Amino acid sequence: MTTVLETRGLTKSFGGILAVDNVSFSLAKGELLALIGPNGAGKSTCFNMLMGQLQPSKGTVHLNGRTITGLSPRRIWRLGVGRTFQITATYSSMTVIENVQMALLSHHRQVFSVLPYAHRMYRAEALALLQMVGMADQAERHCAVLAYGDLKRLELAIALAHAPDVLLMDEPTAGMAPRERVGLMQLTADIVRERGVSVLFTEHDMDVVFAHSHRIMVLNRGQLIADGSVAEVRADPRVQEVYLGGGTVFKSDEVQDA
Ligand code: ADP
Ligand code: MG
Q1: Contact 243, 218 (CB under 8 A)
Q2: 42 lines ligand 1 (CB under 6 A)
Q3: DSSP 3-state of 166
Q4: 112, 176, 221, 256 — which has fewest CB within 10 A?
Q5: Which DSSP state fits 223?
Q6: pLDDT in tens, 222-239
Q7: pLDDT of the residue at 236
Q8: Is the CB–ligand 1 distance for residue 38 below 6 Å?
Q9: In which element (H, E) is residue 84 found?
Q10: What is the pLDDT at residue 59?
Q11: pLDDT tens, 44-81?
């Protein structure tokens, strides 16, 4: 199993608050890894350190064996850590396919606006990516008129345009209806399998987490309290305590037990 991304003793404090406390984990090639935990557990802080948005107080981050701690977000992104945002980052005045073409141009280090023939560049490649996320039939629509779930799928295509080794998805399904959530994670799982990309994601809906993750890590008050298979994490009494205490119950169990 090849390790793609790894953290060692990752720590971040904000004044007196230890938001992330000595977190060490690794993400393998082709793995779909969930990071769960109650609100304020430190998940987003962790993500921000992985993508270079925040500098760790202590600890290191490694990508394909190379230390990337302290590098700029742009540099880390160039080295192969892609991301989708909690807030969708598309250009609403452009069409769906133009957004993907622009991402491909950027990936190939060209600038959209200075090229009069830009609208012809990487069209086939952009269409293939749209096909992959089920958006090819909406290629010529303006982003402004897209449904929220479709914007999220477009966002995934844009992230994939940069051919990342690792994709970081912090609450990718936020604001989506339950059925759409399942759909987006199913799509992500397919992409992981087809492209061998590694994904680290956070998600509130436990049904989605249990259905699609290869592995689950649980963060509570900045500390990693569990890291294992779906079955191991579900059976972990500390995890149940955190979730029962926080009011989030493992819904699948309830349904099965009812
Ligand atoms: P999660 O994403 O798991 O909900 P966060 O990483 O957003 O958790 O937050 C973890 C803790 O760090 C919380 O107590 C939060 O209030 C605190 N925190 C996050 N970002 C900052 C910041 N920029 N300044 C001060 N405190 C922060
Ligand atoms: Mg968060």
Answers
A1: no
A2: yes
A3: strand
A4: 256
A5: E
A6: 999 999 999 999 999 999
A7: 92
A8: no
A9: strand 81-84
A10: 98
A11: 999 999 999 999 999 999 999 999 999 999 999 999 99
Q: Count CB neighbours of 32 within 10 A.
A: 22
Q: d(Cα 195, Cα 209) in Å, to the nearest integer? A: 20
Residue of 14, 86, 201, 203 to test ligand 1 pocket, by largest number of atoms within 8 Å of CB: 14
187-219: pLDDT as tens digits: 999 999 999 999 999 998 888 999 999 999 999
Q: Is 11 in the pocket of ligand 1 (CB under 6 A)?
A: no
- Whether 14 is in the pocket of ligand 1, judged by its Cβ within 6 Å, is yes
Ordered DSSP codes for 2-18: -EEEEEEEEEEEETTEE
How do beta strands 58-63 and 66-67 pair?
A: antiparallel
Closest CA relative to residue 9, chosen from 221, 20, 220? 20
Angle of CA points 160, 161, 164, to nearest 5°: 50
Which amino acid residue places its CA nearest to atom 21 of ligand 1?
A: 14
Residues contacting 2, CB < 8 A, separation 6+: 28, 29
Long-range contacts of 236-244 (CB under 8 A, 24+ apart): 242/37, 242/38, 242/218, 243/38, 243/206
pLDDT one-digit tens code per residue, 110-120: 665 555 666 67
